[in-house]
């Protein structure tokens, strides 16, 4: 399908995992894409090469989501490189888990900065560029609404915050024809949560479909939400988690 011909998209954290799959899927659907990364310059460039091989424009920007100025500047640079902006995908995220007694102030601050503040700032900066048909899509988590295991409080808090933000922003931007939605992946095979990792069997045991999702599964839902077909969908959350929360 080519539902995004001529669209201009920014995907945060597009060098690996779910973000890389989203960047590629948006390009397959016709969009030009800027992706950000923190450290993985080579991997980001490899994704850009794949975007370009599809005949689309692709750019990689180093932009640490923990740095407010870098987040805001990244949106501005993306809009300048692409000649505007239609789609923002807030994907970059980190997982800091563990027992309550072991959380450091650095863990708490990093979780707040990357998983929440960066989403707020990028959305605010993107809103200045988005017009009728604009899209903001954030990546939440199946842990945002239901927490089925210990040791994930900080992460669950950060993703739950995005639900309220998504609903509020949908109200703020709806009159301008901009939709705002959130996608909640479950266990998805990436560096963050490998299907062969030591926590994997416990996760599979809780799922209706007891196997990990692929980053491409998440990307397909994001591409739908980015498309014109989804013009009446806003303020909504979408679980794509193998039924872990059923
Ligand atoms: P990965 O750890 O595999 O990839 C993370 C991506 O985000 C990389 O591109 C990384 O860039 C980027 N990133 C991380 N920190 C920063 C930062 N400070 N600044 C800029 N970019 C950053 O994660 P996933 O692909 O698994 O996760 C993507 C999203 O999906 C996250 O929001 C995560 O919370 C969410 N999610 C994942 C699930 C899973 O099971 N995998 C389940 C539910 C939600 P770099 O390569 O430079 O480090």
TrEMBL record:
Pfam families recorded for this chain?
Answer: adh_short_C2
InterPro entries, sorted: NAD(P)-bd_dom_sf (IPR036291), SDR_fam (IPR002347)
Gene3D superfamilies from the xrefs?
A: NAD(P)-binding Rossmann-like Domain (3.40.50.720)
Molecular function as annotated in GO:
oxidoreductase activity
Q: Which UniProt keywords apply?
A: Oxidoreductase
Name the CDD domains for this protein: SDR_c (cd05233)
Q: Which family does it belong to?
A: Belongs to the short-chain dehydrogenases/reductases (SDR) family.
Q: What is this protein called?
A: NAD(P)-dependent dehydrogenase (Short-subunit alcohol dehydrogenase family)
């Amino acid at each position: 399908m080519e539902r995004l011909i001529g669209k201009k998209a920014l995907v945060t954290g597009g060098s690996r995992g779910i973000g890389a799959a989203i960047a590629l899927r948006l390009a397959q659907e016709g969009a030009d894409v800027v992706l950000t990364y923190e450290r993985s310059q080579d991997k980001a460039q490899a994704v850009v090469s794949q975007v370009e091989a599809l005949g689309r424009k692709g750019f990689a920007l180093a932009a640490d989501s923990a740095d407010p100025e870098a987040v805001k500047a990244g949106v501005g640079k993306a809009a300048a490189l692409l000649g505007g902006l239609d789609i923002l995908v807030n994907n970059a995220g980190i997982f800091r888990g563990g027992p309550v007694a072991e959380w450091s102030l650095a863990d708490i601050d990093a979780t707040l900065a990357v998983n929440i503040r960066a989403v707020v700032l990028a959305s605010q900066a993107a809103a200045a560029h988005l017009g009728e048909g604009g899209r903001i899509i954030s990546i939440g988590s199946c842990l945002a609404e239901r927490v089925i295991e210990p040791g994930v409080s900080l992460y669950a808090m950060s993703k739950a915050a995005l639900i309220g933000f998504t609903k509020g922003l949908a109200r703020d931007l709806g009159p301008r024809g901009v939709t705002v939605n959130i996608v909640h992946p479950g266990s998805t095979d990436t560096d963050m949560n490998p299907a062969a990792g030591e926590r994997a069997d416990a996760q599979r045991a809780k799922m209706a479909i007891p196997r990990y999702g692929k980053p491409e599964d998440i990307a397909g839902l994001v591409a739908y939400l980015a498309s014109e077909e989804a013009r009446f969908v806003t303020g909504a959350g979408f679980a794509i988690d193998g039924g872990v929360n059923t």
